[in-house]
Design a protein that fits this description.
Blueprint lengths: L1 H18 L5 H23 L9 H33 L7 H39 L40 H12 L12 E6 L6 H9 L2 H6 L2 E6 L6 H13 L3 H6 L2 H12 L4 E6 L4 H8 L10 E6 L2 H7 L6 E2 L5 H12 L11 H12 L5 H12 L5 H10 L11 H10 L6 H5 L12 H11 L10 H14 L4 E5 L6 E5 L2 H13 L20 E5 L4 H5 L5 H4 L4 E5 L5 H8 L7 E3 L20 E3 L20 E3 L7 E2 L12 E9 L13 E6 L3 H5 L8 E5 L3 H11 L7 E5 L26 E5 L17 E5 L7 H5 L7 E5 L6 E4 L9 E5 L6 E4 L9 E5 L19 E5 L3 H5 L9 H4 L4 E4 L1
Keywords: Leucine-rich repeat, Nucleotide-binding, Plant defense, Repeat
GO biological process, one term: innate immune response-activating signaling pathway
Protein name: Disease resistance protein
């Protein structure tokens, strides 16, 4: 961890020397000398990576001092840059140009003199710290006599596209008998008399790390369970319980209620809506990680008690919570894994598969079993230990090093897990440690969006370019490695391409992240609003949730502490604009400012002074405009304005330079005229209305990968196509045309003209009328995802689209005005998900032989003239889920279990949801 901090300081020194070489001549030698000293420290720390643990207090103290001096070097450099920028931007007023230059020169010399003194002090401290290595016996590296025992980390390379993320839930062994027992409790009530038809609550009880959540998810994924319940929802409750948030999670899971609709409802009205929606349904709710009786008391009010066999599956560490929820159902107590099950689970995680076998080499078996015995049958401990060992070479020497590191006493309960988790952290390579500690900014049980997380890592400086890969691609590899090491968990995977949609971190591992971040002065998470102050020179501060708003309002922080902050995240709280501005006033060195879900209404003009800012998160705020000073944020990489009232971007957006990578909002207009080089490194431009800006701007954004354009009239269609032909990296395009304009079908074509390259788009979303699809032999074969909305096609689109060999997701929403559609023989060879929505004229749908061979998800909604499911559906054995919503009564009657005419077509599908 300290190595990554020193690395950042070395980079900053190098950049400063390169950029200010003329002005810094007087202190240049001092800067180079300090950089050289820090480079030696960096090399030493990299060699000793992961070794500062156990009782080696001298080594710990030395590393802490190195970290502090590197932090100070960063602060000095950033403060210098800030002062120079402020001085150069200071208006001259009515002074003569000669006098202004004189004052400017004097000011710069004063700043330079101050920098020289500060660098000299830091360099002196750095030299003293370096000397202390040998003075206090921390000099020797390697060998048995060394105070620092080196731990080697093995780098395992993998292909990003081929690497399939390992979902931990699928790897826990020993649960088969538990799954069978719980499935029986859930679905056999209807055969046991009316008494068992009541809404029963089944609680899974056990200490943290036993796999309660994993077991609950495995039970819910059982095909019999999916088929039995018409409505299912998984809701994370967590230790920090907020009634409103839980109700909103339930509404989103059970009713697919939009964020806008939820905001309109009071808490009581929201309860009524949920309860009314569930009436008449046989539902299954999974309430994960319930800590208190109060949490259950809030939730139970929205779950109607009807005698239809509805069930609630509840996981908790407190058996009293389960008894309180349902005194008639005894808690299901989860026990530790046995010796054989523990060994089996360890091997699944630790052994690199050879010939599809997860078998431990015989020469490693005794060492491995000795390690596993330390875990005491706790699945989380075994999985994390296995993830650690999986990154080591499969040799006796490497495994013995890990075994020697396990020097804790066997303990009872959750305390037994902590040393294993701690060891896994210390064995992370230096570049992953800050990435892992960064999870401490998230509240418990947060579902983590990987796109946002990767952008935050990049803004913090944790990710460095690697060859021709983008930093986003390198960050993706880091995420995959943390999953492989079982430090984070996959929640949901995209069924189309295997990409992870959401992550989650176990609360025990989150505790490790928070505590270690505090120890290393990396990030401070106040335990409650009564905590009096920010730690001395902490780098990051996370204040999340309404209960932490008083921390800001009451001013429980000191100026000296806040001046060193480079990251502030204040999410999901309501704080007045003036209070927030006062709180942020002295934080001149901020790189990341995330105000998601706060109540601020305005960004002050002073935001432009935060010249180091890389990430500005305004999602879910009440901000309506951006100040013109936004143009001064030339280091900004991500500007997130989703779910705000910001609809106009100021002219200054074109002056933000080469660093802006992601610009996202809702229905944005851009003022002004693009500059000569208009945002050449921009990768994401989301939800922007077309206008004069695109004529001289869009074609220069050659790094664009994702583009979402609104209000594309016929006037702009042709010049826009010319611009798109220059964007070689573009793979995702959304095009929304007004009702009186036409979407050009050439967006889907491979046709070329003498002046325009064809597009190689992979994901395409087209909203608006399309006169006719291109001929099938001229369609872009690269397309994997296609959404056609309000296309009003007169010819059957399935005939043409069925020949796209790579198409995996297709949604037709009010896209076809005909009465019949046909999936031709062998059509849609790779399609995994098909959604047909609001095809109001459709009466007949046919599926020919061997069509849709890989279809997994089928959704039919609001096709009000469709009479029946197509023949041939019963032959699609890959189909896992059918969702039917707002379809005609006659259509739904044909799907009745064992009675409907179409039941035979769908009885093989594990999950059928009829709304």
């Amino acid at each position: 961890m300290a190595e990554s901090i020193v690395s950042l300081a070395v980079t900053k020194l190098g950049d400063l020397i390169a950029q200010e070489i003329v002005f810094l001549q007087e202190v240049g030698d001092q800067l180079r000398s300090l950089r050289d000293e820090l480079q030696w420290m960096q090399a030493f720390l990299k060699d000793a990576d992961g070794s500062i643990k156990g009782g080696n207090e001298r080594a710990k103290l030395w590393v802490n001092q190195v970290r502090d001096v590197a932090y100070d070097a960063q602060d000095i450099i950033d403060t210098y840059i800030y002062k120079i920028h402020q001085q150069r931007r200071r208006p001259s007023g009515y002074l003569s140009s000669t006098l202004t230059k004189c004052i400017t020169c004097t000011s710069q010399l004063t700043i330079l003199h101050e920098l020289g003194n500060q660098i000299a002090n830091v360099k002196k401290r750095a030299e003293e710290i370096s000397a202390n290595r040998s003075k206090y016996g921390i000099e020797s590296i390697g060998g048995t006599s060394s105070d620092i025992s080196i731990i080697t980390t093995t780098t395992i390379s993998f292909n990003r596209k081929q690497y399939q993320l390992d979902v931990e839930e699928a790897n826990v062994v020993g649960f088969d008998k538990h799954v069978k027992t719980l499935v029986k409790l859930l679905i056999t009530a209807e055969n046991q008399g009316s008494h068992d038809q009541r809404r029963a609550v089944i609680s899974i009880v056990g200490m943290g790390g036993l796999g309660k959540s994993t077991l609950a998810k495995k039970v819910c994924s059982n095909p019999d369970v999916k088929l039995h319940f018409t409505s299912q929802a998984l809701v994370y409750v967590s230790q920090v319980f907020r009634a409103r948030e839980i109700l909103e999670r339930i509404a989103k899971c059970a009713m697919a209620m939009s964020e806008e609709k939820m905001k309109e409802l009071s808490q009581e009205k929201l309860k009524e809506e949920i309860c009314e929606s569930l009436k008449g349904r046989r539902y299954l709710f999974v309430l994960d990680d319930v800590w208190t009786r109060d949490a259950w008391d809030v939730i139970k009010d929205v779950l109607p008690e009807e005698m239809n066999g509805s069930r609630v599956l509840l996981t908790t560490r407190n058996a009293n919570v389960g008894v309180h929820a349902d005194r008639q159902s005894p808690p299901f107590k989860l026990q530790n894994l046995g010796e054989d099950e523990s060994w089996d689970l360890f091997c699944k995680k630790a052994i690199h598969p050879t010939n599809s076998m997860d078998k431990c080499p015989s020469h490693l078996e005794s060492i491995g079993k000795e390690m596993v015995a330390k875990c005491g049958g706790l699945p989380l401990a075994i999985i994390v230990l296995g993830g650690l060992v999986s990154r080591k070479e499969q040799t006796v020497e490497e495994w013995r090093k890990v075994l020697k590191s396990l020097k804790w006493q066997l303990q009872e309960g959750e305390d037994q897990i902590s040393p294993i988790l701690d060891l896994s952290y210390h064995h992370l390579p230096y570049y992953l440690k800050p990435c892992f500690l960064y999870f401490a900014i998230f509240p418990e049980d947060t579902i983590i969006d990987p796109t946002t997380l990767k952008r935050l890592w990049i803004a913090e400086g944790f990710i460095q370019s690697r060859g021709e890969e983008t930093m986003e691609e390198v960050a993706e590899d880091y995420l995959q490695e943390l999953v492989h090491r079982s430090m984070i968990q996959v929640v949901e995977i995209n069924n189309l391409d295997g990409r992870v949609l959401f992550y989650h971190i176990h609360d025990l591992i989150l505790d490790l992240s928070i505590s270690q971040a505090k120890v290393e002065n990396f990030l401070h998470v106040p335990k409650n609003s009564e905590e009096e102050n920010i730690l001395h020179k902490t780098r990051r501060l996370a204040l999340n949730g309404q209960e932490m708003s008083s921390y800001i309002v009451a001013g429980k922080y000191s100026t000296n502490s806040s001046q060193s902050l480079c990251t502030v995240t204040c999410m999901d709280m309501k704080v007045g604009t003036s209070k927030m501005v006062r709180f942020l006033h002295d934080m001149k060195l901020l790189r990341v400012l995330n105000l998601r879900g706060t109540g601020i209404k305005k960004l002050p003009w002073e935001i432009g002074k935060l010249i180091h800012l890389r990430y500005l998160g305004l999602e879910g705020t009440r901000v309506e405009t951006l100040p013109s000073s936004i143009a001064y944020l030339t280091n900004l990489q991500t500007l997130n304005m989703r779910d705000t009232a910001i609809y106009v971007l100021p002219r200054g957006i074109w002056k933000m330079g080469n660093n802006l990578r992601h610009l996202e909002g809702v229905w944005l207009s851009i003022k002004g005229t693009p500059s000569v080089e208009s945002l050449p490194n921009l990768q994401t431009l989301s939800s922007v209305k077309v206008g004069p800006w695109l004529l001289n701007g869009l074609g220069k954004m050659t790094s664009l990968r994702k583009l979402s354009l609104l209000e594309v009239t016929d006037t702009y269609a042709e010049p826009l196509l010319d611009c798109l032909g220059k964007l070689d990296n573009l793979n995702h395009l959304s095009w929304l045309a007004p009702f009186d304009s036409i979407v050009p079908s050439s967006l889907l074509s491979t046709s070329q003209s003498h002046h325009r390259r064809h597009l190689q788009l992979q994901e395409v979303w087209l909203f608006g009328r399309i006169e006719r699809l291109p001929e099938s032999n001229r369609m872009n074969a690269c397309i994997t995802l296609l959404i056609l909305h309000s296309s009003s096609l007169e010819e059957d689109p399935l005939v043409t689209l069925g020949k796209l060999g790579n198409l995996q997701f297709l949604r037709l929403y009010d896209a076809f005005v005909g009465e019949e559609m046909v999936c031709l023989e062998r059509g849609f060879p790779q399609l995994k998900e098909l959604q047909l929505n609001s095809l109001n004229s459709l009466k007949r749908w046919k599926i020919k032989d061997q069509a849709l061979p890989k279809l997994r998800h089928l959704s039919l909604e609001s096709c009000r003239k469709l009479v029946m499911l197509p023949n041939g559906l019963e032959g699609i054995t890959s189909l896992q889920e059918l969702t039917v919503n707002r379809m005609p009564p006659r259509f739904k009657q044909r799907l009745r279990v064992n009675e409907g005419e179409d039941w035979g077509k769908i009885q093989h599908i594990p999950s059928v949801k009829i709304w």
